[in-house]
Amino acid sequence: MSTTAALPLHAEPGSRRVHRAASPQTAATRVAGRFRGDLTTGTWWWSPELHDLLRVPAGTVQPTVQLLLSHVHADDRPALQEALAVAGTSGAPFAREHRVRRGDGADRTLLVVCEPELDPAGAVLALAGLAVDVTDGRPAGSDDVVRHLQTEVEQLRSAMASRAAIEQAKGVLMVLMSCGDQVAFDLLAHISSHTHRKVRDVAVLIIDSASGRNPLPDDVRAILHDASPPPHPA
């Protein structure tokens, strides 16, 4: 049974939109869309931008990994399928270019960046990422454009890695504090503010502590201790 066939893709609120400057006669074209695959439910969600990018009208068909792969050039399809399978089992991120054919028949080149989301134990929960249409942004011999795209990919990967760490840390706090999602995030922000650390750095400290890799620093431990609910009476 193919590992990739079980992978899902999920649309996220607040997905990032990237626009090129439009001519007075031409409306701006969306060139980037987000995806998220929930491995626990087997469902794929695409952002409206990704539907638009592939010219697959939202609501007309359920996003699946097979639908994504069906738009990829036959010669590039095995590489993307393998990358998704490896990411779904090992948690390895990837960034790859693939030729695709949109729903309107136009051939384009997409840069697919994928950052798996892991639980505190390191198991892969979901595949999250971004697909960017780079067809018109890489004129032959333009080293500056290539460097710009490489920089943007690294920034996107860093942002997605930060988000994944924060989501994992929130899960740890929700269990530890018996609280909801928003309270867990507020606690992360509170610790960040009072220890002069970035929220992502606080999240990594909590994940490392939960997995047994490193103990919590004393200042973070003290805040968590003060925020912990009182023990239930025996």
UniProtKB/TrEMBL annotation:
InterPro entries, per database record: ANTAR, CheY-like_superfamily, PAS-like_dom_sf, PAS_fold_3, WH-like_DNA-bd_sf
Matches recorded under SMART domains: ANTAR
Pfam families in UniProt: ANTAR, PAS_3
Signal peptide: none
Molecular function via GO: RNA binding
Disordered as annotated region, ranges: 1-27
SUPFAM superfamilies registered for this protein in UniProt: CheY-like, PYP-like sensor domain (PAS domain)
Residue ranges of every copy of the ANTAR domain listed in the record: 146-207
Transmembrane domains' residue ranges: none
Protein name according to UniProt: ANTAR domain-containing protein
